[in-house]
Amino acid sequence: YVLKRSRLRRRRHRAQPTGPPKLVIFDFDGTIADTFDAGVMILNKLAGEFGFRPLHPKDLEKARDMRTHQLVRFLGVPARKMSRIARRGSEELHNCIQSIQPLRGMPEALRELRRLGYSLGIITSNTELNVNIFLRNHGLELFDFIRCSSKLLGKARMIRSVIRRQHVHAVDILFVGDETRDIEACQRVGIRIAAVTWGYNSRRSLVAMKPDFIFDDPQELVSLLAPQAAP
Fold first, then answer.
1. Fewer CB atoms near the end CB (10 Å): N or C, the chain?
2. 214 Cβ neighbours under 8 A, 6+ residues apart
3. Dmax (CA) of the chain
4. Residue 24 region, left (φ>0) first, then alpha (ψ -120 to 50), else beta?
5. Are the CB atoms for 175 and 192 separated by under 8 Å?
């Protein structure tokens, strides 16, 4: 009972949105950039360095159904080393960032949202250097800000920081992400979340978290945010 009450307190009540968002924030890995294969390869490389279990191909689909804390427990990742592991993962990704491609349809969707006048941002556990190299390589320097943290479960804090720094209300933000931890962070802060199925977590695991929207194609996001034509 005490645990249930604690969880309820952490989930912030959200005011009812009255219109489209003014700011659209994107996760990076698995939402904009196709880093899945590189991420698995790097995770398994770091397993020996930090003493946790590698993720075998036979377990990939099972892992995609897991929430972040479940995957961490499944692999035996030491909690006290998570920030160091995330930093090392970003360092390893830097070595192959030149070969990372955008996810299909995302460049067109981002350019269209910018054309429609939306303010765009990125919140990620990757590094600003990696993100900037990727954006420059693919002509996607469309974002008003990039916020980074090596803490895998630190997105709620970063969202609150963005709310303060950008002088925007929570009700005017839409977050777009591919992981259950994105949904958890947004529900904790009280902003709308659009979960996308082309990234790390499975559609089934995302639906179970009850996001505000769930998209299977980037064009669905554009359709949601594009002004509706008059009848």
1. C
2. 194, 195, 196, 197, 203, 206, 207
3. 61
4. beta
5. yes
Rounded Cα–Cα distance for residues 207 and 180 (Å): 9
* pTM for the predicted model, two decimal places: 0.89
Q: Is 117 exposed, middle or buried (0-12, 13-18, 19+ CB in 10 A)?
A: exposed
Which residues are known to be catalytic? 27
| Alpha-carbon gap, residue 189 to 24, rounded angstroms | 15
Kindly give, in sequence order, each residue whose CB lies less than 8 Å from that of residue 94, ignoring residues fewer than 6 positions away.
127, 129, 130, 133
The Cβ of residue 4 has, within 10 Å, a number of other Cβ atoms equal to: 8
Contact 155, 182 (CB under 8 A): yes
- Cβ neighbours of residue 93 closer than 8 Å, sequence gap 6 or more: 35, 38, 39, 42, 100, 126, 130
> Do 24 and 120 meet the contact criterion of CB atoms below 8 Å apart?
yes
